[in-house]
Amino acid sequence: MYHKNKNENPPALRKIIHVDMDAFYAAIEQRDNPVLKGRPVIVGGNPKGRGVVATCSYEARKFGIHSAMSAAQAIRKCPHAVFIRPRKEVYAAVSRQIFAICQKFSNCIEPLSLDEAFLDVSEDILNLGSATRTAEKLLETIHKHTGLTASAGVSFNKFLAKVASDIRKPAGLTVIRPEDAPAFLEKLPVRKFFGVGKTTEKKMHSHNLFTGEDIKAMGEEKLKNLFGKAGKEFYAFAMGRDDRPVMAQRSRKSIGREVTLERDIRDTGAMLAILKTLAEDVEASLVRKKHAGHTLTLKVKYPDFRSATRSMSFPCPLWRAEDMMEKMPELLARTEAGEKAVRLLGLAISQFPDTEQTKGQMLLPFVFHK
Ligand code: DCP
Ligand code: MG
């Protein structure tokens, strides 16, 4: 696998945990209302209207119900299911609690959604001895503090850790060690590969690609011809290679401010004056958080509530209000502001470069105890 030269050790492998809460919204509903425990519970929009299923309890999944299905169809599949409207604020609060717990286990966490995150645990900050033990302790702690179960996958790259977390759901832990990866990947259906959705799966099947083994056998060149840049990635994944770092700053996608005006305004000079105060606020926030970003975005909302955003990217990251304001007239001119009145103005900086944390992910030898 590696070019071995007598004096050269193979590169050390990372240790990554992917953690994902089980039936997240539905599990919270069951926790908060014990009558629902053990019963099919569906959280989603109005089944009498065009509502869709956000998620459902594992009891409901036995009836073939799943996320994104129409709520009406879900009720037909399981008429005795309990239907609940989402309580988004409650789920967000639990999510914050879970991420706070994750912070205790790793200095490098990449949230993927409310209920899912990657943790780089190459550095054993709690001295638990192994990534497996760390994952076990993480699941225990989440359960103890929230009353909810999560599942986790542990491996030496993001792709494998994520696939692993799904294997023993709910409340399961799966470890894919480097020596087990080749056999695991060979049997893995192509649909499980990162970046393969329904359409790509179909295309793969039409070329007789069904498993990782088939991907590997086809070779990089041919995959590249068929799938472009993605083909190269599919090949790397099938070979157990995925160098994507855990991006600790992903949670913070942008820093911005917006204000709804007391009265609609049409004078662009007045708009710029307001934007300047917003830019100064954003600068203060960026300085406080030691951030600077490559993209500046302006947002306007017109009296009819339609809104427009216009962005500009820069080779050097921005953080100073002055620099933001230098480009603001140009961004504003690309909207209808002025011809039309506006009722809201906002600006944001995004595209933060990788942090030191991300760059400096520890590379320690890969040892799983147990
Ligand atoms: N969600 C949603 N709409 C979707 C998918 C998900 O609103 N189409 C919400 C509800 C889920 C939460 O996001 O509870 C987390 O999504 P997951 O895909 O992780 O699904 P669950 O946590 O519900 O179940 P699982 O045990 O399969 O992870
Ligand atoms: Mg989940």
UniProtKB/TrEMBL annotation:
One of its GO terms (biological process) is DNA-templated DNA replication. It is found in: Cytoplasm. Coiled coil: none annotated. Its cofactor is Mg(2+). It catalyses: DNA(n) + a 2'-deoxyribonucleoside 5'-triphosphate = DNA(n+1) + diphosphate. The keyword rRNA-binding does not apply. Keywords: Cytoplasm, DNA damage, DNA repair, DNA replication, DNA-binding, DNA-directed DNA polymerase, Magnesium, Metal-binding, Mutator protein, Nucleotidyltransferase, Transferase. GO terms for molecular function: damaged DNA binding; DNA-directed DNA polymerase activity; magnesium ion binding. GO terms for cellular component: cytosol. Poorly processive, error-prone DNA polymerase involved in untargeted mutagenesis. Copies undamaged DNA at stalled replication forks, which arise in vivo from mismatched or misaligned primer ends. These misaligned primers can be extended by PolIV. Exhibits no 3'-5' exonuclease (proofreading) activity. May be involved in translesional synthesis, in conjunction with the beta clamp from PolIII. Belongs to the DNA polymerase type-Y family. This is DNA polymerase IV. It comes from Desulfobotulus alkaliphilus.
